[in-house]
Model the fold of this input.
Amino acid sequence: MDVVVVKITRAIGRWARLCCLLSLCVLSSATLRAQGSAGQIEGTVRDEQAGVLPGTTLTLRNQDTGVTRTLTTEGDGRFVFPALAPGRFTLRAELSGFGVQEVADMTITIGLSLRQDITLKVQALAETVTIHGESPVVDTTKAEISGTVTQQQIETLPMNSRQYLSLALLVPGTTVDATRSFFATVNVGGSMTFNGTGNVVDGTINNWAEDGEPRQDLPAEAVAEFKVTNAGYKAEFGLATGGVVEVVTKSGSNALRGTAFEYFRNKALNSRGVFETLKPDYRRDQFGGSAGGPIRHDKVHFFGAFERTDTTEFYTVRTGQPQFYSSLEGTLPLPSEQNLYSARIDWQMSTSQSGFVRYLGEDDTKTCQGCGGTTASGRDELVPRQSLVLGHTWLRGARQLNDLRFQYAHAAFYGYPSGTDLWKETGAFPATRVNRSTRTYSFPSLTYGNNYDYISPESRWELRDTYALNLGGHGVKFGGEYNYMPYVSESAGNSPTSGTYTFSRDQFFDPNNPASIAALTGAATFSASTPNTTSHPTKYYVGFVQDDWRVRRNVTVNLGLRYERLYGSANEDLDLTSFPVALPYVDVSKRGDTNNFGPRTGVAWDLFGTSRTVLRASYGKFFGHIRLLGTLPEFRNFRQFTINISNPAYPDPYLGRNPLDFIVTAQAPNISVVSNEMIQPAADQVTGGLSTTLPFDLGLHVDFVYNRAQGDYKTLNINFRDPVTLARPLPQFGRIDQIRPDTDLKYKALYVKAEKRYSHNTQFLVSYTYTDSNDNSPMGRYLDVNNLSLDLGPSNGERKHAIVASGSVLLPWDITLGVLYTYRTPLPWSATAGRDLNGDTFNTDLVPGTTRNSGSRDLNLPAVNAYRLANGLGAIAESDIDSSRISLLDMRASKALRFGDRRKIDLLLQAFNVLDTENLQAQFGGGRVGNALSNTFGKITSARPSRQVELAIRAAW
Done:
């Protein structure tokens, strides 16, 4: 190994110089990028004496589509078939004087590099020898930490709501905590924020430019398989400070095949919810189907899928204070609907060129989002999305490949007060729109009111391309991409005529009783804002080079360098002349994060040269999203005004004056400015691990991940009043909120995974994750400008321990049983004071003597009780505090009724939370009462569903 180390050391210097030169070439020429989801088959053809055999004709055939590729081995006997979509393949080797050999049933999964050497025997008889290939349980050529969810798992494991992405949680290092309810999403690796995971579908970006979350969903019937990479991914991927999820959609085959299905749930099949006194009339219908087949045999294929979901579910409001809020407590309907579309055509133009076109569409309508727990009102949402992708792959001989992708995507988010009419037109604020908002009342144990009104359409024009070269022991890729993303953000505001009142104590409140509204007392703050529209396009430039260098037969070094440039996210294009007053602390000439070079290195060492045990390690620098919603307020200065009043009069905070006159009279507007040092969030990842193949097709993987992500934004008021003189540094302004790249997240984790790929009618996967993650509350406002360290604490999504076990087995009589068990320890939470203690007009202060997110960790309960006693409230015992741990057992059983080789009907029964376990705190983190002035402090007022049973029928032909 000493010789290997010397070779690696000498080559790194040459490689670094080559990276810089290639990067410059890429940036100055056509944009190039690889389709990372493609797999490949490589190997060497030899005779029985181990001599290489140049000139061997190799033909690779996709067993489903009939598409073939042919090449001839060169002088070293090596061959590579790159850019393979997931599927089953047969490889045929022919050379004059030797017997023909075929290797059948080689299965390629996303990104898999399969080595298949071939030994030809001298021809004695005119016969063809066929052997069956095996996909490795362990990939010994990559340093990344990843896992693939296969079609077999998608079809046999219980999958709630047919949401394929939920199966990403089978892989260690994944969670949905710290995500939001807007979109189907998952946190991967060290991405403890909702915008830290990269999402790729068919080689193109599937993230919102607005906030970095997944842009759209797709039908489960259209998903061939998907891959979750926690850490160590190559230079062809970006816009992620944690991990990446890659999805490949299905293609048609030479056989005409299709499906039709109906999944059904209702009240009679479910258990009563944790906080429900009676079972509501719950109903859920999910139906659709798919069809695929040949347009031209072996050449052109089509595939399409459709899925619709109609749901009438319910939310429960539980304040713990029925003597005050009984008119708003109870269980109420929550209807929603979703339509998903997918269509794809693949065309094998020749043995060297292929292309595809794919369309995805989604229409998603939800009601009363945010309702439940202590919130008795919310918003309705309409979120339409679509994506059109074109792809072209060109094989240039046996050693070169060009892969091109183009995408046009459009999506919009419409959020409006529940029960009111949808408004889509931007830039218009007539009274009919503004007046549909109502005043919001916020008490320690209840929030009620409707003033959310938001529109945000955006588009993405994406072009990416890669050029790949097979240079003996080097697999070199270099490429890049360009994205143009026009975006409009519009808010009708927290209307000044309605606004939000926050009260420091619970009291009787009935919105249908004018006398109770008039009798409210103890208003602590009042806030409001005026409407505004902002149009702000951004751009994304990328150049990268990647070399997978086979140093020796059993040692692979992954070397990469990626350059990224997000233009516009730091408001580099801000026009200062458009403002009536100069913005302080702003120097646009100093803005722009232009030095984002991210090296990626990794080593995969096949310890014994048997492709059964690999030792791996990696380091990489990765760059993420700048969330536009954090920086856009700078454009709204002197266009959208905010009002924040401490100890306001009630019910009229303006004391009879016109709200707009109140803003002008104040003559000290609150403004928002972006730091001139604003950068693209960056993460440094270090990994190390070992994978080995055990008997009976078992794989064992143990990995350590360290991820430090910095540069996401925090908000700090840099014009805070002097606590003695009450004077501000700039008295002509009120609050000056500076958006600063101040966040610091440190994530350490241990991943353990044991898996058995499907064989002998059985598969299973068991994973364990230990997480230690601390940060200073990314994307939040600093709790106290005089003590920034108060924001330090465990990450919002940190669950120390997680165990996920899944498996399926094919039983006699064509019965398949699938099981999924999940256990996760509690989330952290903060004890808040319930009033403004530091005079910053925000009700977010912690209880004195406690730290952020110390709940369920090391909460200073005596300090909480001392604070409660000082406010006339009783003590809280440790036993009064609820736990948010998760314990879920899901099961799936299906019986196949077959009618010939291809036609069948599956009868399915799925049960979720089979043991009817009480799992407090709804999936997206709502319902925890952290307000120390509440009589229900420490309680959780929401829960995951109790046992739900689903019946289904699925026909396939």
About this structure: Residues 2-28 form the longest helix (27 residues). The domain at 32-132 is CATH 2.60.40.1120 (Immunoglobulin-like). Helices lie at 2-28, 151-156, 322-325, 431-434, 514-518, 628-631, 659-666, 861-870. The mean pLDDT is 90.
